[in-house]
Amino acid sequence: MEAEPPLYPMAGAAGPQGDEDRLGVPDGPEAPLDELVGAYPNYNEEEEERRYYRRKRLGVLKNVLAASAGGMLTYGVYLGLLQMQLILHYDETYREVKYGNMGLPDIDSKMLMGINVTPIAALLYTPVLIRFFGTKWMMFLAVGIYALFVSTNYWERYYTLVPSAVALGMAIVPLWASMGNYITRMAQKYHEYSHYKEQDGQGMKQRPPRGSHAPYLLVFQAIFYSFFHLSFACAQLPMIYFLNHYLYDLNHTLYNVQSCGTNSHGILSGFNKTVLRTLPRSGNLIVVESVLMAVAFLAMLLVLGLCGAAYRPTEEIDLRSVGWGNIFQLPFKHVRDYRLRHLVPFFIYSGFEVLFACTGIALGYGVCSVGLERLAYLLVAYSLGASAASLLGLLGLWLPRPVPLVAGAGVHLLLTFILFFWAPVPRVLQHSWILYVAAALWGVGSALNKTGLSTLLGILYEDKERQDFIFTIYHWWQAVAIFTVYLGSSLHMKAKLAVLLVTLVAAAVSYLRMEQKLRRGVAPRQPRIPRPQHKVRGYRYLEEDNSDESDAEGEHGDGAEEEAPPAGPRPGPEPAGLGRRPCPYEQAQGGDGPEEQ
């Protein structure tokens, strides 16, 4: 039985006919250079190309999973710390023993004001920050600000908590806008790497068909929000494993509570001022905060180390080079688009419903009737319901586009009607299962809402020059809605439910009206994105079709041949290349170098 020849022959080895191969070319040390360093005879270019793009697709999946896990850990730490901090500061005994007359309630109110009020100004600076730092680095910077907020709780003072809360409020909209932009870009890149053969046949510069990345966007948004909604469950771990051991039971905390649910007024009216049975030791609090700080640092490392860039370097240069004044104005100019105007009620409702889940259902219906010790389990039910239902967004692969979004609105509409007429009795646990079911179903509606809106925006606005503006507008309206809820926290529960109901109906009707206009073929009015104007002298792309060439260069390239330079010797040394500025040596010799165009 003959031995098989090696797949890749060793360079310099003797051939089967001694020192010469079958063509008479000498092998070994005297072989030609092309024979030694040339391509392997069994090299399969098509197979290597397939492997290359498979690695690219796996890299995109890694980016999506890393961004999703980073967002989940960041918000899990932030919500868990804020919840534990507010419960501890609410207790009168804890405030007097630990901090005396420092005025923690006043500090907490200013801290919440910083978190809720500061995002109102985010529309002015978010696009500028995203274009300046880049999408990935904006995500990293915002996650770092969340970690800064966690670190300030080691030393709870006015000059640490309030400034960090203001900084966190400034980072909320940039974080969410860059996250939405990042997931949409990953879907587009995955489509590009999956259909590389089609693009090679047509030329890489040709734009893919509109909506071709939609299936990948649906999958990636479902993955992202299934991870993100788990952050509400992660945020309850400090409550379940630490703080619940120090809490009074419901007979003490709810002793003066007279009405709950639809009959309640404000937030937990009549709730006992002392909720801690024993005070936690400072050492135990430091351990818990250190664990939260370590998780926040891990989220930073995930975003920094595992998330790749959303754009190529030349694309980022183009995005910045439209002019900072234009970048500042473009979010406002996009209001001309009727699609955005029709979606604004849904943006507002998206902010209303997530805060109503945390304050209305969890506090006004849950804690008010079954006690503070069951708050964590109610939010875990909401989190698991929302995380599982995020995968229902994949139904958009087979169903018409409006179905998931309208289905989420229908679930919330039904629950709002039920909650409008339900007033649970305080300190009665027989109806607690209804609360868990209501929390889980509200999570289902929230998941369909968030996944549907983000996917819809990524499909309607797939131009990479607009995505950061669109997601900025979306999350800014969410922030405005959350600020409105913060201002109206003392309203009667029936008034809150009525506002929620009216906003939901208006959002659904407005969205269906937008879909009707799109089916009729009404063209949206989009602002023109200015052409990139590069100011860096001597910079040119290594491509034939420069995206940074000036108008004069483009017209010159389309016309006839270039003018020949005048005959005769030029003074000074010959320039090394066309379009290059003279180096200091050439300037010293008196040569001016070629003129800049």
Task: Tell me what the structure shows.
- This protein is an all-alpha fold and 597 residues long.
- The chain has one domain: MFS general substrate transporter like domains (Growth Hormone, Chain: A, Up-down Bundle).
- 63% of the residues lie in helices and 0% in strands.
- It has 23 helices and no strands.
- It has helices at residues 33-37, 45-90, 92-99, 104-117, 122-133, 135-151, 158-194, 196-202, 214-228, 230-234, 237-241, 250-253, 282-306, 313-320, 324-333, 338-370, 375-390, 402-420, 432-460, 467-487, 493-520, 551-558, 584-589.
- The longest helix is centred in the N-terminal third of the chain and has 46 residues, at 45-90.
- It is globular and about 90 Å long.
- It starts with 32 loop residues before the first helix and ends in an 8-residue tail after the last helix.
- 38% of the residues are buried.
- The model is unreliable at 14-23, 538-578 and 591-597 (pLDDT under 50).
Write the layout of secondary structure elements.
Elements: H1 33-37, H2 45-90, H3 92-99, H4 104-117, H5 122-133, H6 135-151, H7 158-194, H8 196-202, H9 214-228, H10 230-234, H11 237-241, H12 250-253, H13 282-306, H14 313-320, H15 324-333, H16 338-370, H17 375-390, H18 402-420, H19 432-460, H20 467-487, H21 493-520, H22 551-558, H23 584-589
Helix pairs in contact: 2-6, 2-7, 2-9, 2-13, 4-7, 5-6, 5-7, 5-15, 5-20, 6-7, 6-13, 7-9, 7-20, 9-17, 9-19, 16-17, 16-19, 16-20, 16-21, 17-19, 18-19, 18-21
